[in-house]
């Protein structure tokens, strides 16, 4: 990976850390509960949906890296499984927003969705 990509990833990580810890936690007072997929507040249908998305993500990675010739694939094809991670964090944020809107924990999930999207865009723009 190029130096620009590493610097971009570092900047994205620092901005997310500052946003999550200083703004959401300290200034807005939003506490984050357990991130575990098996937390007692999780809806079982959302757990199943996230499990299906994760299995599809693993399958897509294995298919791209094992079955196909990795060197002949375009960059968009090589990093496309990250789109499933974006979908998974979006689904988790949507669940938090629908079921526990008053706790405002969905801010964490949707900010992670934006971070994964930014990483995907950065990898695409810098050539991965």
From TrEMBL:
InterPro entries reported in the protein's UniProt record: DUF4181 (IPR025441)
Keywords annotated in UniProt: Membrane, Transmembrane, Transmembrane helix
Signal peptide per UniProt: none
Keyword Oxidoreductase: no
Transmembrane segments: 6-24, 45-66, 78-99, 106-125
Keyword NAD tagged: no
Protein name, per record: DUF4181 domain-containing protein
Organism: Planococcus donghaensis
Species classification: Bacteria, Bacillati, Bacillota, Bacilli, Bacillales
């Amino acid at each position: 990976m190029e130096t620009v990509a590493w610097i971009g990833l570092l900047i994205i990580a620092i901005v997310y850390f500052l946003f999550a810890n200083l703004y959401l936690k300290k200034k807005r007072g939003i506490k984050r509960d357990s991130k575990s997929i098996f937390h007692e507040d999780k809806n079982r249908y959302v757990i199943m949906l996230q499990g299906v998305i994760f299995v599809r993500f693993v399958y897509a990675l294995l298919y791209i890296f094992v079955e196909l010739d990795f060197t002949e694939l375009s960059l968009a094809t090589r990093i496309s499984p990250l789109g499933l991670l974006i979908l998974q964090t979006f689904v988790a944020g949507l669940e938090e927003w629908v079921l526990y809107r008053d706790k405002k924990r969905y801010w964490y999930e949707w900010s992670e969705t934006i971070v994964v999207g930014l990483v995907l865009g950065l990898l695409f723009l810098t050539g991965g």
